[in-house]
Automatic annotation (TrEMBL):
It comes from Torenia fournieri (wishbone flower). InterPro entries: ATP_synth_b/b'su_bac/chlpt. The keyword Thylakoid applies. It holds the Pfam family ATP-synt_B. GO terms for molecular function: proton-transporting ATP synthase activity, rotational mechanism. This is ATP synthase subunit b, chloroplastic. Keywords: ATP synthesis, CF(0), Chloroplast, Coiled coil, Hydrogen ion transport, Ion transport, Membrane, Plastid, Thylakoid, Transmembrane, Transmembrane helix, Transport. Residues 64-98 form a coiled coil. Component of the F(0) channel, it forms part of the peripheral stalk, linking F(1) to F(0). F(1)F(0) ATP synthase produces ATP from ADP in the presence of a proton or sodium gradient. F-type ATPases consist of two structural domains, F(1) containing the extramembraneous catalytic core and F(0) containing the membrane proton channel, linked together by a central stalk and a peripheral stalk. During catalysis, ATP synthesis in the catalytic domain of F(1) is coupled via a rotary mechanism of the central stalk subunits to proton translocation. It is a single-pass membrane protein. In plastids the F-type ATPase is also known as CF(1)CF(0). GO terms for cellular component: chloroplast thylakoid membrane; proton-transporting ATP synthase complex. It comes from the Eukaryota.
Length: 184
């Protein structure tokens, strides 16, 4: 430790200028060397360091400006996107409302159409029933008439003998002849 303090205490004591030699005091020589190197660096490196710092400052400022421009562009795009979203939501609500209205309208149309179809089917059914009833009535009448005719023919055949038959035929022929003479 004594050598360290001695090197600081005796700064004023330098060897004479006429002699040349090595200074073996490490701390004294290091401080001088460091101060010389730092001085040279400050003197010559000041411009370079200043230029480097100025370039760095300009790059940072440009980056900040670009970031601000990008931020403004992003905000503008966000606002546009929000406006489009609001517009699409309004349109979706309108489609939803119109869709529900359209569904209700179609539902009512379908119900009305179904009622009309059922009414037509009911009318067709009633017409078919009336037609079938009329046909059945006509068939019954025809059978009754045929049975009555057969019964009358059977009664007539059983009551008529040959002589009565010949007289009836002769009377009918006479009537037809009289009708013919009147028309001629």
């Amino acid at each position: 430790m004594k050598n360290v303090t001695d090197s600081f205490v005796f700064w004023g004591h330098w060897p004479s200028a006429g002699s040349f030699g090595f200074n073996t005091d490490i701390f004294a020589t290091n401080l001088i060397n460091l101060s010389v190197v730092i001085g040279v660096l400050i003197f010559f490196g000041k411009g370079v360091l200043s230029d480097l710092l100025d370039n760095r400052k300009q790059r940072i400022l440009n980056t900040i400006r670009n970031s601000e421009e990008l931020r403004e562009g992003a905000i503008e795009q966000l606002e546009k996107a929000r406006a489009r979203l609001r517009k699409v939501e309004i349109e979706a609500d309108q489609f939803r409302v119109n869709g529900y209205s359209e569904i209700e309208r179609e539902k009512l149309n379908l119900i009305n159409s179904t009622y009309k179809t059922l009414e037509q089917l009911e009318n067709y059914k009633n017409e078919t029933i009336q037609f079938e009833q009329q046909r059945a009535i006509n068939q019954v009448r025809q059978r009754v008439f045929q049975q009555a005719l057969q019964g009358a023919l059977g009664t007539l055949n059983s009551c008529l003998n040959n002589e009565l038959h010949l007289r009836t035929v002769s009377a009918n022929i006479g009537m037809l002849g009289a009708i013919k003479e009147k028309t001629d």
